[in-house]
Description:
Distance between the termini: 15 Å
Mean pLDDT: 88
Order of helices and strands: EEEHEEHEHHHEHEEEHEEEHEH
Helix content: 25-40%
Number of helices: 9
Largest sheet: 6 strands, mixed
Radius of gyration: 23 Å
Shape: elongated
Amino acid sequence: MTDFALTLRDITARGLGPVSIALVPGEIAGLVGPAGAGKTRLLRVAAGVRRPNTGDVRVWGMSLADPSGRLLVGYASDGAAFPHALTVNEVLLYYARLHCARSNGGGRSPRSLAREALEIAGLAAARELRVEALGRADLHRLNLAQAALGGRRVLLLDELLSGLDAFARRDLRGRIARLAAEGVAVLITSRDPAALERLAARVLVMRDGRIVRAGPLASLLEERVLEVILDAPPPEPPPGFRVTAAGIEAPLAGRTVEAASALCRAHRLPVRATRVRVKSLEEVVLETQPSLTSLDFP
């Protein structure tokens, strides 16, 4: 029995890699980075939609080329399009019949699989609505429903939380978290890092087709920053500080607030106020340098 739900080892493709990732059952990992960083390309490789030039993808120890392994992977693509004339239930029945044909039935009927997917995504009340009548939030729920249908054990979700209001985003986060609590491994991308701060336990930062930083979300967000508000901008900031709209700021890694404040006094800066804050995930992403961070692959 493998310890990992999904492994990507030394993956390369056009504009991608090498990339190695391992997800354990029940883990939610966030893949963040600017547009064009390679997030979608990596998910397409992991889903089997795109072949890598080199490398290996395994699902619960099975090769992605194995039909049994492919059945365990659900993929929700960014901006997925469903036939407008079909109802929500008809769309899910189509995917359910396809799943049953590939799995030789698996003891479940298409109707039962579609009904279960409706409940997972919170679409039971919208089951008879046509796709053309759905709002953005329900379209995202339908995308989640088709990805999770059939008891998939690995979910690859591309920008599923993007473009939603706070209420819809919170609802979808809760549904993804419940799937993870049942042992489903989730790899989810987002252009907006803030969307993943209440969901992902681990974050992978991509730039130029590579993972440039990775770690538990809690450790990435525990970095503290000293903000110094000045009455006038400095001719140049003290060592380790950068100029901001309100004054200067510097990370507190390896030094105390008192030491950093003393440096400001030594430079005779007109300090009005200071405060300490923790970095947001967005700041962590923006400050990530385009140099490859070494990752230990289990």
